[in-house]
Write a structure and sequence with these properties.
single chain, mainly alpha, 2 strands, T_SNARE_dom, repeat, signal
């Protein structure tokens, strides 16, 4: 059999060694390509997820802004209705005050008719003066008029105030037009909430004023009713 020389063995070993290196390099390249593809796929899925979440977030801010603006509109309409109701109460109170003025003039006229010989009222014709009673003084006295003036003054609105600088509300990830619109929507919602706080303060103040005025109206109606009954009694006595 042919003998294998040392040089041939060395050459064979070198060939085997380079073959192994070549296969290792090929395997490394294949693994690197697969890894790169896997990373690209993962990055694509992540980008798709970010795009989906951004779209949902944009829709959510649009809905929130729409609800906030609708609520603001309802608040404004309610405040307008409340102010109109306040004007009606003011008109009713002015009418009651005019009735009181007319009744006082009627008292003067009846007093003149009741005078004996035109100088003084006969003792048996004297009646209790309504204007001297506590209920009358409570609603038509000087202190009552001062209290009316105080309650009619517009109170300070604690609900408004300067808008605090907010934002940015959106942490930028894609930094595209959608995130810009989300920022605008959330800023608009913040402004609406600030305005709603002011409207709520105005409504609360107006409701307090009207509740106090309603109590005053009831008291004035009671006083005017008693005053009118007394005037009718005095008139019937003159007949």
């Amino acid at each position: 059999p042919p003998t294998i020389t040392t040089s041939q063995s060395l050459h064979t070993l070198i060939l085997l060694h380079w073959s192994f290196i070549r296969q290792s390099l090929l395997l490394g390249v294949c693994f690197s390509v697969k890894r790169r593809r896997a990373m690209d796929d993962e990055r694509y899925r992540l980008e798709q997820r970010i795009d989906h979440v951004t779209g949902e977030s944009l829709d959510a801010t649009r809905r929130i802004r729409q609800v906030a603006e609708e609520t603001h509109g309802i608040g404004v309409e309610t405040l307008v209705t409340l102010n109109e109701q306040g004007e009606k109460l003011d008109n009713a109170e002015r009418n009651l005050d005019e009735i009181n003025v007319d009744l006082k003039q009627t008292d003067k006229n009846l007093t003149e008719l009741e005078k004996c010989c035109g100088c003084c009222v006969c003792p048996h014709r004297q009646t209790r003066n309504v204007k001297g009673t506590k209920p009358y003084k409570k609603v038509y006295g000087k202190k009552a008029q001062q209290m009316e003036a105080i309650t009619e003054q517009p109170g300070a609105n604690n609900g408004g105030g300067s808008r605090q600088a907010g934002g940015p509300y959106v942490k930028r990830i894609t930094d595209d037009d959608r995130e810009e619109e989300m920022e605008e929507n959330l800023q608009a919602v913040s402004d609406v909430l600030t305005n709603l706080k002011g409207i709520a303060g105005d409504m609360g103040g107006e409701l307090d004023r009207q509740n106090y005025q309603l109590d005053r109206l009831n008291q004035k109606m009671d006083v005017n009713t008693v005053h009118l009954e007394q005037a009718n009694y005095r008139i019937r006595r003159q007949l």
